[in-house]
Amino acid sequence: MSINIPDSLPKLLVLLGIIGMAVGIYVEKELTENYYVKFDKYDEIQDAVTLESYVVELEKKNLLERAKQLSQSLNVVNPIETNDSITSFIRVFSGDKKRVILTDTLDKYWNNYLKKQKSLDILLKRKEIQQKNINSEEKILDSRKEFYGNFFGIGFLLFIIGIGTWSLDNSKPSEKIVKQNDKLYKFCQSCGFKFSSIRPYGTEKDKTENLAFCIECYKKGKMSEPKLSKEDFINRKKEEIKNKGWLSRKLLMARFHSLERWNKDDYY
Questions:
Q1: Coil, strand, or helix at residue 79?
Q2: What are the distances in angstroms from CA 70 to CA 26, 59, 130?
Q3: Is 201 helix (H, G, I), strand (E, B) or coil?
Q4: What is the pLDDT of residue 267?
Q5: What whole-number distance in Å separates Cα of residue 65 and Cα of residue 138?
Q6: Checking DSSP bridges between strand 209-214 and strand 201-203, what pairing results, if any?
Q7: Using 50, 70 and 90 to split pLDDT, how confident is the model at 177?
């Protein structure tokens, strides 16, 4: 596979600019996606915490209601005590038979509650750890985005300088129409299309070829649209190339702005 090296400094600057911008955009996109993958995992843990908290509250409510019903039916002191967020179970293993029965009956509900509470505590710990990781990743992301953002900035600057220099090179003053047969052009200096068998050179009054303009723009020594302004020409071209890629549009617009017809008054 061969690689074509740009044959001029402006083209090299444009190429380096495109590479720099591409690297900046690609790396920033990758870093951002990796960050949000980890953030999504944190969201999953947060959802799990919310759900498990709801389950714990249901277990606690069930425990308290059961304890209240049994203590009333047995006419003994309720062994489940709640103080703010703290719930305690005062067990009785001997002595008053009714209290022992109540303790044994509530033991299953209490263990279910403790099991769910323990599961919630583990999730909360995981959430805390993941939160620290997210904060750390966010700092790393910001620093790396700033670093690779410089690639885009420098690349954009090189691209603009390259395009500008390229345009200046292409828009250097040239001779009048009558002397333009001394130069060879790749593009019509009026419409910007490439010369080809389908789009041949224009003609002078004496039927000789004019190597600056195509037959569609210049025929028998006259412009096809002598009153067309540069502004109207540019607007027309913008509409024609609106479906092309971003880079193609940039390069074509640079070509259109550099065409000799629209930078000299010698052709009107």
A1: coil
A2: 66, 16, 42
A3: strand
A4: 45
A5: 46
A6: antiparallel
A7: very low
**Rounded to whole angstroms, how far apart are CA atoms 98 and 189?**
107
The whole-angstrom separation of Cα 260 and Cα 267 is: 9
**So what's the pLDDT on residue 12?**
83
Query: Is the pLDDT reported for residue 264 higher than 80?
Result: no
Write down the domain spans for the chain: 9-169, 172-263
d(CA 30, CA 76): 65
User: 99-123: per-residue pLDDT in tens?
Assistant: 888 888 888 999 998 999 999 999 8
The structure tokens 């509900």 sit at 109
Residue bearing tokens 């985005």: 145
Number of Cβ within a 10 Å radius of residue 242: 8
Helix (H, G, I), strand (E, B) or coil at 82: strand
The CA distance from 240 to 69, in Å, is 82
Q: Which of 55, 172, 167 is nearest to 116 (CA)?
A: 55
CA atoms of 221 and 1, how far apart (whole Å): 47
User: Tokens representing 237?
Assistant: 């071209």
Cα–Cα dist 227/255, whole Å = 21
The topology under which CATH files domain 9-169 is Helix Hairpins (1.10.287)
d(CA 53, CA 127): 13
DSSP result, 185-222: -SB-TTT-PBP-SSS-EEE-TTS-EEEEEETTTEETTE
Distance CA 203, CA 93 (A): 116
CB neighbour list of residue 141: distance below 8 Å, 6 or more residues apart: 31, 32, 35
- Does the model's pTM come out above 0.70? no
Q: What does the chain come to in residues? A: 268
DSSP assigned state of 182: G
